[in-house]
Design goal:
With about 130 residues, the protein is an alpha+beta fold. It has 4 helices and 6 strands, in the order H-H-H-E-E-H-E-E-E-E. The chain has helices spanning about 10-20, 25-30, 45-50, 70; strands spanning about 55, 60-65, 80-85, 90-95, 100-105, 115-125. The longest helix has 10 residues, at about 10-20. The radius of gyration is 13 Å and the shape is globular. The N and C termini lie close together (about 10 Å). The mean pLDDT is about 90.
């Protein structure tokens, strides 16, 4: 998986979609926000955007309780919800690349401290793993 950086303050979900789908941030942004103004992406909205780009999310977010994906032995690519703030109304999306055992953070510069909250498995639209 190739790291894609977000160009907008609230574009982390778009960048994660671009990484998972193997496309560009600009293409995902144009699809998701044709009027040009990027706002945050809820899990439901991100699911719709990803499915339109050939990526399916697992059924639900699974709590991580602060554990790093390596410690959980996640043997698949996953979308991670991290750094929740504003009483749970704001968060950041990153991806777990299981082949490289690496978290891909689209933020410029990336967060120094990642507080892992939950994850959801990434699959191709035909429900096979990446």
């Amino acid at each position: 998986m190739r790291l894609v950086k977000q160009f907008d303050e609230d574009g982390c979900g778009l960048a994660c979609t671009a990484m998972a789908a193997g496309t560009t941030y600009r293409k995902v942004r144009a699809f998701a926000f044709p009027d040009g103004e990027v706002t945050g992406t809820s899990t439901r909205r991100l699911r719709e955007i990803m499915e339109a780009h050939g990526v399916t999310l697992g059924d639900r977010l699974i709590p991580m309780r602060g554990k790093h994906p390596k410690d959980m032995e996640l043997g698949f690519d996953a979308l991670l919800k991290i750094n929740v703030r504003q009483n749970g109304r704001e968060w950041h999306w990153v991806l777990w690349d299981h082949q490289r055992q690496k978290v891909l953070d689209p933020k410029r510069p990336p967060y120094e401290r990642l507080r892992f909250v939950s994850y959801v498995r990434l699959m191709r639209s035909d429900r096979t793993s990446f």
